[in-house]
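Folding follows sequence. Below is one example:
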Amino acid sequence: MKPAARRLIGILLSMMLVIASLFVYASLLIPKYKDIQTLRGERSALNGLLEEERQAVEAVKQLIRQYDSISDVKAGLAITLPDDEEAASMINQFRGIASSNGILMSALSIRPLSIKPTGMEEIVRPLGTLRVNLNLIGNYDSFKEYLKAIETNVRLMDVQSIQIHNAGLSSGPYEYQIEVDTYYQL
């Protein structure tokens, strides 16, 4: 074979090799490259979705923390303004305050008052009122402490009237008649 023919065969083989490599590139690599680009796009979208989900989970956790604090407030409000009369609890509070301040409770009566409509029943639950009449016996300083304890009691109470009677001695003990309103939600 002549050297010119060998060169021609070498050039043709080289050209066929280039054409074969272009065919392999076009038929095999380009579709896989497109698949890779599609998968990269999906991964990017999924990463964005994952970040949105993380933010949503964090927002829900924050709402749960806020709800927990609201439920604590609601529980505290339920003690201050109970859902029903809870007369036994109220009587125990009056007796406990009296005994801790050295006052003798000689009588107690409870009378429910009429419920006054607020006009905002769809927003605010109406309040019921119980009028408690108490007869107490003790010295004046103990009575002042008793009134302070009622004022700072956990249950909402308003003293409506106070009457003081001397039990016969000028220095005490005195007899006190007080009317206290306590409230509850309907």
User: Anything to note?
Assistant: Residues 1-80 form one domain. The mean pLDDT is 85. Residues 36 and 165 are 96 Å apart (CA to CA). The beta strands are 104-112, 127-138, 157-166, 174-185.
